Amino acid sequence: MTPNSHNVRYHFLICGNTRPSDSLLPSCGPQGGSAIADAFRQGVARRGWPAGVKVTATGCLTPCLLGPNLVVYPEGTWYSGVTVSDVEEIIAAHLDHGAVVERLRMPAEARLW
To answer: What's the superkingdom here (predicted)?
Structure first.
C-alpha cells in the first residue's frame, strides 16, 4: 500500500503518549500532546475537513526529549517542541501553501532512524 493509496493529502500524526510517572523520559501527552491533537482537529474542522486531510493522535514517536512531537505525511516532515499556539500556523503552512514551518522543524540528526 502506498502512502497516498487512500487519497490522503496530509496526515497529521501527533504524539499523545503518556508514560508512568516514575519514567526517566518525558512524554508528549502531559506536555500538551493531547491538547495539540484536539487543536488540530478543531483547526481542520474550521476549514470544513478538506478532502484527504486526517488527524491522528498516536503513541510514542520516539524523540521524547524534544516533545511534543508530530509528523506530517506523506512528505515526512517532523516537528518538535510544538504548542497549541503553533497549530494554526502548521495547518496553514501545509494546507494553504504546501510549506513547512522551519522554526519548528525537527533537526534531521534528532531523528533516531
So the answer is: Bacteria
